[in-house]
Amino acid sequence: MIRIENVHKSFGKLEVLKDISMEVQQGEVVALIGPSGSGKSTLLRCINCLEMPTDGRIYIGSQDMTSPRTDIMKMRQNIGMVFQHFHLFPNKTVFENITYAPITVKGIPTAEAARKAMELLERVGLTDKKDIYPSKLSGGQKQRVAIARSLAMEPDIMLFDEPTSALDPEMVKEVLEVIKSLAQTKITMMIVTHEMGFAREVADRICFLEDGRLIEEASPQQFFSNPKSERARSFLEKVL
Ligand code: ADP
Ligand code: MG
């Protein structure tokens, strides 16, 4: 579903991704883990072309996202992204946040978009917040709306960039539960997270980045109990 081949990314002289290659199969859940500044966000942003790699290729299915002939806007409709800081439309209600893109970008009939929105609100447990504006929601509720909004486009891939890092501790769980329930569907997911317990439980595979390099790829079982690299080991000692 996602194939990253020898990707490099530099900002000026600073090389932040150094020859990253990895694949994610359809339906697989991959957790990206690593110290702050290791390039996790940049890698996710390269996958949906919010950043262009300086070198290398990224394929989504058979489509090369780095090719100038690829219709990036179209490809992006199939890739949902959830950020640390929600990015909801402040002047739209919860319901409008969710139905906006399906109606205006995808051309879904209003009634169908509305039905789908209600189904998604039920799934994230926010049916009663439908007509509320984002400013009236808690952080955990905002993030659940952001997830529902992404899912409304029916993406094959979901990218999460530290979805719980901006939340108060008591709200982390409600968001992780929603993501966990998604992991049981056949959607393909890449999740940047500092929640090690969550990564261990939900991910099929852990990818550990440090200083722009993919240092280690392993099953959660292997990674958390017996990491191969010294760098992963010392990272885990600090965070666990
Ligand atoms: P992480 O998500 O693992 O914390 P990032 O991908 O955000 O790491 O950042 C990796 C490095 O790239 C950092 O040194 C960061 O300062 C730098 N960086 C990220 N985005 C930009 C940008 N738009 N311009 C310049 N430097 C950037
Ligand atoms: Mg980041």
From TrEMBL:
Pfam families noted in UniProt: ABC_tran (PF00005)
Stated name of the protein: Amino acid ABC transporter ATP-binding protein
Gene3D superfamilies xref list: P-loop containing nucleotide triphosphate hydrolases
Span of the signal peptide: none
Keywords: ATP-binding, Nucleotide-binding, Transport
Transmembrane segments: none
Every ABC transporter domain range: 2-236
Organism superkingdom: Bacteria
Coiled coil: none
Source organism of the structure: Paenibacillus shunpengii
Gene Ontology molecular function: ATP binding
